[in-house]
Amino acid sequence: MNIKLSPRELKPGMITLEAIVTPSGQILTPAGTELTRQIINRMKLYNVDSATVDSNDPIVRQLLAAATNVAPAPTPVVVPTPVVPVMVPVAAPVPVMPAHPTPVTEEPKEGEKVVTYKEETQSNSRRMMVSTEFKGFQVDYLLYIEHIKDVFSNIIKTPGYSINTTELIEKMQPLYASRNTIVELFDMIHQMHSLNDTVYAHCVNVALISRMIGRWLHLEQHDLDILTCCGLLHDIGKLAIPDEVLNKPGKLTDEEFALIKSHPKTGYEMLRNQDMDSRIKQAALMHHERYDGTGYPNQLSSEFLSDFAMIVAIADVYDAMTAARSYREPLCPFQVIEKFEQEGFQKYHTKYIYVFLHNIASTYQSNRVMLNDGRGCKIVMLNQNTLSKPIVQFDDGTCVDLSSQRELYITKIL
């Protein structure tokens, strides 16, 4: 059963069942977020009166049990020392959030260690890399890469080999089932770019991102599993391309580029006779097609495109852009969001690209980021019409709306 709790009743560790929204309509956190003290404090700052949680959550049950077992006192307890009257504040009307929220600085409690911005910046990535959760994810990830290699090798080398899609999903489950938050999953995927950026790793990443998009679209379990397989097998045709062409650091020749562009058809041919959902085969063939007909290999327009192929196309581009390439550094999520904003609504299915961009941006709400001028700051509010340009707050408490400062943009999630 769902239950609404006020910020005063909420505890870190509880999981939200619905997005937490300010009175002005700003999303503080998406559904499925694990609450932290920072999020609860932000609810108080933005006058959010409640969050929806699951009454069966162990933390919630413990809280409710404690409340139930406390008998109300019929009369106030009189103590021998002078009593200071407690003033009960009258509830004030909920104010409308201004475009530029006034920063609230919390004084450190006695004995509490104050972490400086420099220390926080240096420790976040290191903390992720040495955490038990990431080490477990890394082991599961590398083991699954080996499994995918075996499957792909059998497809190529063993005539009549049958792909067991059920097994693909079952073996992948540890990668997505145990992650506590959406941002944790995406951060771990980004960390793995530096460890294993191959066709196999890219397929695993695209599968995980596609599945997350499917969750944001509220797909049923069966469709989530099919969509995950679409991501896993979308680039299998690249295995027919020589490594010296596929991983060439310099500019490709026309012949080499034509070979690269042949991989969707090659992948489809590899999967064509497999006993599997047709949407998996369509994703291999169509993931480089674009909604306006400018993609390849067949320049198909919107009415001929598979929905799952269009979801995989978004995940494919996002993972490729956030990975390092020989000719550029990896782009941060907000740089990718900006590129999608510039052309995404023409080239990608409007519904899917909007859901993706909105949720990716919301995922990093309240995160510390770095701007292109080297300054660190925190995202305090999203601009719904320009998700790549949120309102940020600097360490001195000042806020800047990046949508009105076009020369400034986010270059790194800290």
Tell me about this structure.
The chain is α+β, with helices and mostly antiparallel strands. Among the domains are: about 1-65, Molybdopterin biosynthesis moea protein, domain 2 (Alpha-Beta Complex); about 125-330, Hypothetical protein af1432. It is about 45% helix and about 10% strand. The chain has helices at about 35-45, 60-70, 115-130, 130-155, 165-175, 180-195, 200-215, 220-235, 245, 255-260, 265-270, 280-285, 305-320, 335-345, 350-365, and strands at about 1-5, 20, 25-30, 50-55, 370, 375-380, 390-395, 400, 410-414. The strands form 3 sheets. Strands 8-7-6-5-9 form a 5-stranded antiparallel sheet. Helix 5 (about 165-175) crosses helix 8 and helix 8 (about 220-235) crosses helix 12.
Keywords:
Hypothetical protein af1432, two-stranded antiparallel sheet, about 425 residues, five-stranded antiparallel sheet, 15 helices, about 10% strand, Molybdopterin biosynthesis moea protein, domain 2
